[in-house]
Design goal:
Rossmann fold, 15% strand, 9 strands, five-stranded parallel sheet, alpha/beta, 2 domains, four-stranded parallel sheet
Length: 306
Amino acid sequence: MASLSTEHLLGIADLSTEDIQLIHSTADDFKEVLSRKIKKVPSLRDVTIANLFFENSTRTKISFELAEKRLSADIVNFTSSTSSTKKGETLIDTVNNILAMKVDMVVMRHSQPGAHRLLSRHINAKIINAGDGAHEHPTQALLDAYSIRERLGEVGGKRVCLFGDIKHSRVAISNILCLQKLGAEVMVCGPGSLIPKYVSGLGVKVSHSVQEALAWCDVANVLRIQLERQHVRYIPSLREYNQYFGIRKSHLDALDKQIVIMHPGPINRGVEIDSDVADSEHSIILDQVENGVATRMAVLYLLAEA
């Protein structure tokens, strides 16, 4: 059986193209499982997984928990608001105490970039990055690429544009790396204040015109404005952002082709995307949610076998 080239999922940068393709082909199998009347397999019946979320999460946390339950794993849930980290305990001490309870895998979201890489050097468990600050969110990129593959047949050769707050988005950098490894062309579009200077060095195109970017792309992945990570004002107002950079139905009506609309959530309707776009026939947003469970099942299964 094929296996991943890494024992952790710390970021897309650590995965080969073959790793990504293996995750996607394994997700195909698990998506078939999720269509059955009994949506459960015993693949991780003897594996204990700790979900450590040091930042708030709804979709990612629920998606991982559901994936773990569908694989029959035992689950330990941890939230920082009720933990000893509030009393000064270090991250490594916290995790080591959890591992002392014989935990095999750790799914973690943390506000500090690189926290997962630090843990991987100090603890004896498989680590999955569920988001580290504004750095990476690898499973979101994997499920986004999987959703493009499912809708368009392949990712290679497709044109994908990421719209919005590129500067503060961990989804953006993971998507860029994943899409490029699969052979897609990538563009980013947004106000100059929300596009970091380093992004052009990654081999992506940069646009500040929504209509121009939509005319170029096959897939539009719309990201939200991440106000919780902005310590200074990068845009005059949300209303003005929507006026100049929000995706509206009139933008799509002006195109001479059909494009795919994506959004990793949560959606700020009326800011980065209007409801008649998010809920249109162009949108695969709910498909992304469904595919998130199958993709995370694939990651968990493959890492447990590594």
